[in-house]
Amino acid sequence: MNLTAQKQIAAKILKVGVNRVKFDPESLDRISEAITRESIRNLIKSGVIWAEPIKGISRARVRARAGKRQNVGSRKGAKGARQGKKRRWVIKVRALRRYLKLAKERGEISGDLFDKLYTHIKGGRIKTLKQLKEVIKQEGKIGE
């Protein structure tokens, strides 16, 4: 039983490709008798003929590789091309400010010292977390 004509008509009615058109295996006799667009339309309404949903493409493999190939040998472009100066500065300053806030909450530094060190960070006088910890240690001893 050749149902290619019915499949093509159904594909045009459903506005999908021929491969997405599916038939109910128990109703193949009714489908073979349907030769007009109207009869095919009636079979679609009754659920004997339908269009399969689009499958789509899985992005899982791409997502799994997202963090890979970033080591030294794979890098192309200068340091500034991979991450801009401003972005690097923002990340660094946020880390320093976060630590400074934590030190104030713990009671390691006073509010006045907090304000002083905050401006030092903003001005670029304190550049690393290690330097900030050393300054806090020194200022803490002087305060005692």
Entry keywords:
single chain; 144 residues; mainly alpha; 50s Ribosomal Protein L19e, Chain O, domain 1; Non-ribosomal Peptide Synthetase Peptidyl Carrier Protein, Chain A; 2 domains; two-stranded antiparallel ribbon; 8 helices; 2 strands; rod-shaped
CA-CA gap between termini = 97 Å
Strand content: under 5%
Mind telling me which CATH architecture of the largest domain this is?
Orthogonal Bundle
Largest sheet: 2 strands, antiparallel
CA gyration radius, whole angstroms: 34 Å
| CATH fold descriptor of the largest domain | Non-ribosomal Peptide Synthetase Peptidyl Carrier Protein, Chain A
Helix content: 55-70%
Total number of beta strands: 2
| Tally of discrete structural domains | 2
Which series of helices and strands comes N to C? HEHHEHHHHH
Average residue-wise pLDDT = 91
Major β-sheet strand ordering? 1-2
- Helix/strand-derived category reads mainly alpha
As residue ranges, the low-confidence spans are none
Q: What is the CATH first-level class name of the largest domain? A: Mainly Alpha
- Count of separate DSSP helical elements: 8
What can you see in these coordinates?
- The protein is 60% helix and 4% strand.
- It is mainly α.
- It has two domains: 4-51, 50s Ribosomal Protein L19e, Chain O, domain 1; 79-143, Non-ribosomal Peptide Synthetase Peptidyl Carrier Protein, Chain A (Orthogonal Bundle).
- It has a two-stranded antiparallel ribbon.
- Helix 1 packs across helix 3 and helix 6 runs antiparallel to helix 7 (111-123).
- The protein is rod-shaped.
- The protein starts with a helix and ends with a helix.
- The mean pLDDT is 91.
